[in-house]
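re: ur question from yesterday

yeah so i grabbed the chain u mentioned. its 728 aa long if i counted rite. heres the sequnce exactly as i have it in my notes:
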Amino acid sequence: MITHSELTEQLKKHFGFDIFKGNQEAIIQNVLNGRDTFVLMPTGGGKSLCYQLPSLIMAGTGIVISPLIALMKNQVDAMRNFSEEDGIAHFLNSSLTRQASDAVKGDILSGKTKLLYVAPESLTKEENIDFLKQLNISFYAIDEAHCISEWGHDFRPEYRRIRPIINEISVAPLIALTATATPKVQHDIQKNLGMLGAEVFKSSFNRANLYYEVRPKTNSVDKDIIKFIKSQGEKTGIIYCLSRKKVEELAETLSMNGVSCLPYHAGMDSAVRTENQDKFLMEKVQIIVATIAFGMGIDKPDVRFVLHYDMPKSLEGYYQETGRGGRDGGEGQCIAYYAYKDLDKLRKFMQGKPVAEQEIGNQLLLETQAYAESSICRRKLLLHYFGEEYTKDNCGSCDNCMKPRKFIEGQELLSLVLETILEVREKFKAEHIVDILKGNATSDIKSYQHDELDNFGSATDEDEKLLHAVIRQAMIAGFLSKDIENYGLLKITPGGKAYLEKPQPFPIVKDNEFEDDDDDASAKTSGGTCAADDVLFSMLKDLRKKLSKKLEVPPFVIFQDPSLEAMATSYPITMDELQNIPGVGAGKAKRYGEEFLKVIKEHVRENEIIRPEDLRVRTVPNKSKLKVSIIQSIDRKIALDDIAMAKGLEIGELLDEIEAIVYSGTKINIDYFLQEVMDTDRVDEIFYYFNTAETDKIEPALNELGDDDFSETEIRLVRIKFLSEIGN
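ran it thru and got these structure tokens back, copy pasting raw so excuse formatting
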């Protein structure tokens, strides 16, 4: 066994460090002793060293199985920087030419290479298996080991095949490493890799230097992000979005508003993607806007903020992505924007997948929702999710702990919850328990005859969110546990049973309220949710009403409320500035703009208003490539459902795009399509409704016209025709 001083000497010699961090030394000793090793270490904790140093000390070549080619390149470059010999580390994957692959194999066979990185897909190739059989393998390191588990945030089926292939090549000690794993995922990894007897080294998941905050995702989210970035000076940050499309759009919007940023997602050309990543690492740009494809293995220590434009699909994903902030121990602000409808959209995307996969995905989304909406310490919630207890009542560095919280007594509700779980023999999930307490006679409740239970309807007057908060806080207090193996069934712990026998005060805090913005097209074109200057807003509404009577068109045809609100917030006084107002394109600005600009200019002059020019979000011109393509397709009279299919859109998403086009003042003609799908008298009836309506919103139209007689899609189609003909 190598001594402490000898190991420290090797650390100094190869890596220039004087001391080990956290569990590193114990982990390395375990590997050198030839034992299977499971490493749970948060991002920035120094996982790589746990196999890099042993590879240099042990005889033979260490094999690192890693999921990302970009990650491999970074790791290999890092190892070569510590050595005089370039052949010390190599990777073997699909990016190599035959000649390069042969050169790598030559270095390995000569004994120069101490560490070889392979992708799991490369590991399955017969020629690679045959080659690896020739080597003296010191150990296998499985990096990003959470990819093995279906319950992990980045499940990869090919990871499930690692153990049988290792058995075929040659048996050697295993090191599984991950930055995020719940107890369920940890067990999954060990079981699949056949290393249940491994020594487990678990570092604390608490990143004390990170600040956590969740903000409501309103229509002014872009403005909020721009204000935040500009308040940070030169500090670097990462913004995560769920879709490639949103990455491109947000990066373009930020660039137009003077933010130095670049996009990054898997759909980009690999050379451009690598170039963008390198520019960020070299600080040639301040911000990277990315999908979760960015960041694995990115060793930039001074990322000062991580923003989530969309809530991630799981708390594990969220934890890993926020973990890229403040890796040097310095400041790291983690701000997520939350809207329930985003999670609802993710649920819909899962439809059609196998039932078990949907069940897992739904549970992960429920945990994300609970984190976003809860009013208790975010650090406490996150650490509880990873099986770690945080004992402080106030962490002092999350939004929930930084604001005063109002506690209410939850003793009676907790007792009801515990009693009900026992009544149903601990065989149901939180949603079912809440339905019983609320007296919701759902089909499930009736089929199990749970509407006959004593506690059915015993909390009818309580808000469902409060009941969920009681359940969540009871879990953190140790009175309840969730049986993940069985789809999240609630179980009562010994502590919960003791509480039922002797109830005590149980103060709880209500969840945060997140109001969704209006989902209608009018909201989608909005740049804000309310006007900053109520007086000006009222004046602009009066002008619109006057013009409406004069031109004999409904007021919303001229400008919608959100556009007026934006005008009464940013005070545009030139035609160019007016066209930057959401929902105002060149056509509308030219047709109606002069009179509105006149009123705004006069108001600004009379009241000596300093206009917030620096806070005005310059929007990407509405005629983006997609919109231009849609307009061209409509001009060629291509059916709308065919256009949607060609663009990879749902019909509703296509209508969103077309509505944005007409609301901005561009005239289009979809009569050819309406004639195919609707009778003329139905079109006329809806058209007449909008001609006399006070609002263009869909819900009042459905109420007036009858939702049994007309569909939402029909009303939206005719609304497009109406706005284009009357307003443009």
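noticed a couple things. Residues 139 and 172 are 5 Å apart (CA to CA). also The radius of gyration is 30 Å.
anyway ttyl
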